[in-house]
Queue: 4 jobs
Job 1
Amino acid sequence: MLGCCSAAESYGLPVPQQAGLHVALEPNSSRLRSSTNASRHVPAGAEPGVHLHWRDRRVGHQRFRVGLVDALQQMVLCVGEEWSVAAIDAARMKTPGSEGHLDDAFYRMLVRFCAGASGDIAGLSVRGAESPLESIVRLRLQRMGLEPVIQLPIGKYRADIVIGDRLVIECDGTQHATAEQFVRDRDRDALFAARGYRVLRFTYAQVMQSWDSLVVPAILAALHGSGDLHGSGGFLHGSGRNRDFS
Ligand SMILES: [Zn+2]
């Protein structure tokens, strides 16, 4: 059955691009059939692009996929901090009762399940995150020693992320901007600037591909330029997705 990222995606949650197929197996499964030749048994893990998970509990399993809590726990163990927290954030933001919604009781269960082996990754989730990119940027800023505030109301809008008193960071996500969105973003930028905020706007590609070379220097320059150095002690300790924070 579908597990991990593949199950999470079926619940409408964000997963890494080209995540491959993540399959959940019964605890005692040790041999699989080839996906290209059903009569051929293959050793576990031998299929390229297929990630295997042996499940050890059942919370809300369905015929073709593991339950939501299990899928998210498998993501914590499989894809690491950023995408698992992005998926958990997104699940908590879904409409109550809708598919893929993680309510507070199940969130606490997930945190309990994840405690130990994976540190407290599930506990890094916050309620209110609006997009996976925002979740990823928030986590990286926290690792830099900064204290990002998400979805801060400024005038009629909510800024994606605010650092200190005067820096807004807007995350543009993966979707192609419509003309309407373009106009609304300019309106947001102008309103934030009028309230005295410096606005930095980053795309998905910039965050994922140019974090250390472009995004971090831009943020640090903006913080230094404004004389706002909250958490500056963290600047010296490096940053970026490859750092091991466990
Ligand atoms: Zn997986």
Note: The first strand starts at residue 21 and ends at 25.
Job 2
Amino acid sequence: MLGRWGNTNLWHNGLIPISQNDLVGREFAEVVADARPFTDEVASALFFTSESFSRAYAALVSELSGIAARAGITADGIDCLVYPKKYRKLAVDGRVNQFYSVSKTGFQVEDGRLRTVGFRAGGKEYSIDADIVIVAAGAFGSPKVLREIILASGNSPAGLGTGFIDHPMGFVGKVRFSRETSGLIRQFSAYDKGAYVSRNAVRLRSDCGRYTCCAFFRPAMTMDNRLTIYKYKSLLGASSGLARLRNACSWKLFHPDILAEIVSHLFGLIIPSRIFNILFIAEQKRGANRVYYDGEQLRVDWSISAEELGVYRSLLEKLKGLLSGVAEEVNLVTDIDDDWLWSAAHHSCTVGLGSGSEALVDRDLKLKYLDNVFVCDGSIIQEHSYANTGLAIGQLAFRLARRVLDVQAN
Ligand SMILES: Cc1cc2nc3c(=O)[nH]c(=O)nc-3n(C[C@H](O)[C@H](O)[C@H](O)COP(=O)(O)OP(=O)(O)OC[C@H]3O[C@@H](n4cnc5c(N)ncnc54)[C@H](O)[C@@H]3O)c2cc1C
């Protein structure tokens, strides 16, 4: 049963692994480590086809660390977000029977297994005997599907949907470098390797060691540091088709920074400026945020906690200190409130994983209450520092597929 309109249809195919060293929870760290051997296979399925992703990524981190060190911008290391230049929309293998826009789903449970999945699609009723069921409806969709399954199993779905995390992100400032340093920062900002481009970030680790955030540098034209312009840029970038056209009808389109961004996107040009925008990507931890359904209506309770905001401010102070030592001018707001930050659409952690009482799936991604139901999508990502989630979801999916095939073979 498939929905056509998931986030995977919208994404930009940027690939970055979740670093195990950034994970606080031991059990999820072990799951991520266990999924690592699948990295190259997944990256290749996600259009990184020129070489081994793991080797290329390790080489990039080493090379870019050198460039960052020469520019004097190394804080707690650097990381690389890798964009294959050629990619297509992901499509389901043609050998898979596909049903879209399903309604009236129903689940029948017997002897600790999900026996049948019923639904209506294209005006017809279906009842399919289930061998293995993998729920992959995303961090917003899976809690709804799982709720029905858990209730059918006679258990309580308590805690489902709670713990939701995302990456709060935002442009927080501008920095101007000297002529010599700006050449290095330009390379660091977007490192072109022919078949792919690596956009690179300075890692920022909190004093408490629990949070790892990062900052990217994007070429800009002015030192103007205005939230309204950043919000407009984000709106323009996130919209498409008619909505983008509508958003383009604004005087803000003519701000030099926006024009520069458009030209660089349209023509793939790197603006030879000495000024850079600072894009901050922040980590959240599992807490009280949640997604739930009011009837059929999805509700998302998402906010940034006072602790998180405090951490972000201190990390921005750290970044300001670092940049002030090497830049000609820094215009960075460190005392941000949550108005400066918005969702990066890396929706995660709405299904607890592990052996704890809150957990609903075990380390094999199997639902606690049933022997043949698994969950694999953003919902089971328990922590993600600043890392985009696509590669990690792919690694976990390939790992799960291997396990299911191995169990069936025995
Ligand atoms: C604009 C944008 C750019 C992004 N860029 C990147 C990037 O460069 N790199 C990266 O790693 N990540 C990126 N992401 C994030 C990435 O797209 C998501 O992390 C990832 O796609 C999530 O995958 P998922 O399987 O959890 O959910 P989804 O891709 O949302 O898939 C869930 C599917 O389940 C279906 N569904 C939901 N409910 C039901 C139901 N009740 N019954 C049946 N089907 C249902 C949905 O229609 C959907 O098809 C981006 C996201 C956005 C929005």
Note: The radius of gyration is 22 Å.
Job 3
Amino acid sequence: MSPPTATEDVIVSLKATNLDAITDNGGQILVDLKKGKPKGGRSPLAHLLPPTTLARFEKYGIDVSQGYPEVPPQEKIPTFLDEAFAVRNEGYPYVDRGKNADPEKKALFGAATEVIHLTKHIGTEIVGLQLQALTNQQRDELALLIAERVVVFFRDQDLSPQKQLELGEYYGQVEKHPQAQHLPGHDGITIIWPELFLQLGISSTFKQSKTTARWHTDLTHEHQPAGITHLHNDAIPKVGGDTVWASGYAAFDKLSPALQEFLEGKTAIFKSAHTYFDRNDPLNGKKQVEREHPIIRTHPTTGWKSLFVNRTYTDRIVGLEPGESEVILEYLFGVFEKNLDIQVRFNWKPTKADLGTSALWDNRISQHNAIWDYENSEPRHGTRVTSLGELPFYDSESKSQRQSLGLSLV
Ligand SMILES: [Fe+2]
């Protein structure tokens, strides 16, 4: 435990990290620097895990006897904004697995019993394949399919967390969150478990969901934001709990050429979900990490243009007056949220009760929204692995999806 630090020392320099508190000279705590940080370590909640989740963990040797889930030790969780900003700020070389895949995807489709396009523009379900048995050739073809169809689903999966992680590592650097709950011993596998939020005192109601039931794109504040996210749900409500995805390619194609042209080359500021203290302004509360990315980005695999904004994390368009930015962003959010023809709504139910369902989606070209209509009346639990993508870029030579496919532009 670090000793509390008197205010004037703090203001002179906050170079030291992981202080517990800033106090005045009388020892009165002015800022509790641990405020909002999880306790760290393992939670005593394993007994609340759904039976299907426990069975999966037991089968694949995930030991929850020492507690579940796990968060990094509190002293390893960033206190200050600059520490959080430094996480993965240096970049990493991205390998595009879909780039050289067979455009016909013969290895993947040939091994499936059925390939179902759920809507015209977004969402494909593959039947009869086990994700943990895919060859690298099939994995490459799946990466291409995700890049084209935005989100791909697999029901009835017998998937170990370890194999889920391995697939994620194949697709890119796996995100390890500085403070999110994860599987014990596997910080690259985060947890989606509404019961956990309830236990942490974050209780959603029918009128107000406080968790994932809002339109967003995962991890857009990262230096190299999320590419493919793979969520495997191993406990699924019998009724409800659907998730909706909307396509960024189609959202771009919904805009007028004049608005497309206005947005091309512009950037926006994206904020993090978690907050940290500003070393230069510690007395004024916690702030979000901010990063700047193109609003129209080109997908490295398909070369298609996509609208890259989301209501939860896109804060403002760079170069515009605040009022202008607000009006334009509100319009752009609405393009995703209001056009049902560019969305797919998916119900996760497996056909065999003891198996799980996987969704793999591309965050570069989509937003999603998890519907909370089951209101914790039934358990839901999933493990999530996120593979980070390339540094976002806009190529002025790139085409839109509809241009490339020869579809009507009006
Ligand atoms: Fe999400």
Note: The mean pLDDT is 92.
Job 4
Amino acid sequence: MSDARTALDEQDAPAPVAVPASTVTAVPDGPAGPATAVDVRGVSKVFTTKAGTVTALDDVHLRIAAGEFVSLIGPSGCGKSTLLRLVADLDEPSSGEIEVFGRSPRVAREAQDYGIAFQQAGLLPWRTVAANVELPLELHGVGRRERAARAADLLALVGLTDFARHFPHQLSGGMQQRVAIARSLAERPSLLLMDEPFGALDEMTRERMQTELVRLCAETGAAVVFVTHSIPEAVFLSQRVVVMSPRPGRITQVVPVDLARTAERTDDLREDAAFFAAVTAVREALHGGTPATARGVDVR
Ligand SMILES: Nc1ncnc2c1ncn2[C@@H]1O[C@H](COP(=O)(O)OP(=O)(O)OP(=O)(O)O)[C@@H](O)[C@H]1O
Ligand SMILES: [Mg+2]
């Protein structure tokens, strides 16, 4: 099977190897199996505005396994958020198909398969931290006692137990992001969609949050689609890094990251030779086009 999951199966390869886009696009059409979290088949998205049409995505194929952590990276405007929004059922493809655990995004959303965390924490200012985390559960009719217990667990998980009764404005930006991540995990989603969730954080907080996210995902077994502009962040977090090019947005390369198992990714990894090798592989994949295509990507 020469689909994108092949790359996952090749995790034991000795060094990160950029997979040519042709092997990625050769995804056989067919029903997604139970081990497939996201199946994007030949998806294009054209926006029509008064100023004309923009092809945000063109013939994108991507299959993400259950429990897999995949990052999307590419220059500003290449369609990363658009792809995430299509998977999240916040918009519809112009052509092509998307399945989430073998169902349409709409059905998957209704079945509460998703947890979503975007760049802005998006907390409700009049609710306490705990009440924000409980919100999705409340909307789905979970009882008060169960909600409170779940929120307490999640706040412990993100290290904010002492702030449960605070309001969002009493927290730092990084703490608010952690609340948003706790909220996105409230319904034990099997798929987390994250669009630059750490974009506004300082480097230290960002690295701590990355380590925390790796731990959370190992604990919950959720598949993650993570949009970032940072190559080291993508490499640290992911089993595969999907590199996109702009106008029209396409997947140009998929870089398997051959680092420790997700559960064993600790800060030491950031100084490991394999980490630097993977960073280089992603950087080279990004620069595969003209230098201008790497604009807007943080290569530190
Ligand atoms: N609702 C919309 N209407 C019209 N055009 C849109 C809309 N949403 C996105 N686009 C266009 O689609 C293209 C891809 O946008 P998208 O937001 O997906 O990029 P991105 O890769 O997430 O960029 P960034 O890294 O800056 O967040 C851009 O050219 C953008 O102008
Ligand atoms: Mg975006």
Note: Residues 38-113+189-294 form a domain with the Rossmann fold fold (CATH 3.40.50.300).
